Amino acid sequence: MNIAVIGAGAIGGVVAACLKKAGEDIVLVGRPEQVDAVNREGLTMHGARGRETIRVPAMAKLDKPYDLVIFAVKTQDIEEAFELNSEFLETSLILTSQNGVQADNLLSSHFDKIRQLSSIVMFGATYVKPGEITFNFEGDWIIGRPFTPVDPTTHKVAEVLGKAFKTVVSTDITGQKYLKLFVNFNNCIPALIGKSMQEVFADMGLCRLSVMLLKEGVDIIQAAKIELTSMPDFPRERILGLANMPLEQAAGIIHKTLTGLSKEPLYGSILQSILRGKDSEIDFINGEVAQIAGHLKLPALLNRKAVDMVHEVERSGKFFTVDDVKKAFNS
After folding, report:
1. For the chain, first and last CA: distance in Å?
2. What total number of domains does the chain contain?
3. With helix as H, strand as E and coil as C, how does 290-307 read?
4. What digits encode the pLDDT tens for the residues 7-42?
5. Of 148, 171, 194, which residue sits at a domain end?
6. Is residue 19 located within the same domain as residue 167?
């Protein structure tokens, strides 16, 4: 396969670098400053797999059709990425990699469903600057079909990506995406304060807030009768257990897990966007359950407040203090 990765941020950069190193035919599509840096100096990746600079061809938009096109932009940027590259997307297999559950639906108006594949990224990365990324930790890359049954093409794509990552084929990618939604629920709190996961979740009050957001979100998903499906190495019971155990006990687990997740600072996807002066994916994470709650005429007071406060940070460019956040949520 010849492969194009659209999005030269954290995940897109890691994917392009690792697949290129594995010998795949890769191009990376990014913004002009990213393209200039990668073409001039290469793509530098450091962290879980050491430090290396890898030469990856980069361009501002697709130059021809590719067998597989991986969308690695944030959900809110999918339409822009499609419009910019639509000339050469008429025959490609399309693979989404976004957090949240809406990316496949957004692209379904543009593609035959048989050409759409979906994925869940369980490895972590941080965008440092154009041409430089941190590979924070390893994890599965789960591949599936959002609208059609898994077929030989799905396995072929997983096999190709498996040259660089541990890939798993899923027969229920949608149910797993809803579970992954809660893995990303914590990202809103560092985005409010402007500090790393490790710094934020060293504070037990913020760990309690994380659990409160989770408990509310799980209650809403269950009220909507949406099934959460276990992922490899991440059973649904891990999230449901946290949501159902006493607050202090669950907060202790959050504290231990998120302060030890990576030796390098880990900022989370929402804060990374804000630090780059871009709108974040908050509407597709905590905002997703708030929207579902609205359809059910249920309150989602905590998650709505989290969404509103992240938008305030986006508008103002100013972060809240830890005390501001605790006071706002009475945590």
Report:
1. 51
2. 2
3. HHHHHHCCCCCHHHHHHH
4. 999 999 999 999 999 999 999 999 999 999 999 999
5. 171
6. yes
The structure's pTM equals 0.93
Q: How many CB atoms lie within 10 A of CB 249?
A: 11
Is the distance from CB of 21 to CB of 164 less than 8 angstroms?
yes
Percent of the chain with pLDDT over 90: 97
SS3 per residue for the chain:
CEEEEECCCHHHHHHHHHHHHCCCEEEEECCHHHHHHHHHHCEEEEECCCCEEECCCEECCCCCCCCEEEECCCHHHHHHHHHHHHHHCCCCEEEECCCCCCHHHHHCCCCCHHHEEEEEECCEEEEEECCEEEEEECCCEEEECCCCCCCHHHHHHHHHHCCCCCEEECCCHHHHHHHHHHHCHHHHHHHHHCCCHHHHCCCHHHHHHHHHHHHHHHHHHHHCCCCCCCECCECHHHHHHHHHCCHHHHHHHHHHHHHCCCCCCCCCHHHHHHHCCCCCCHHHCHHHHHHHHHHCCCCCHHHHHHHHHHHHHHHHCCCCCHHHHHHHHCC
**Are 30 and 162 in a shared domain?**
yes
One domain, residues 146 and 11: yes
State the residue range of the domain holding 268: 178-329
CATH code of residue 34: 3.40.50.720
Taking 90 as the threshold, does the pLDDT of residue 263 lie above it?
A: no
Q: Are residues 36 and 152 in the same domain?
A: yes
- Are residues 196 and 211 part of one domain? yes
| pLDDT in the model for residue 331 | 58
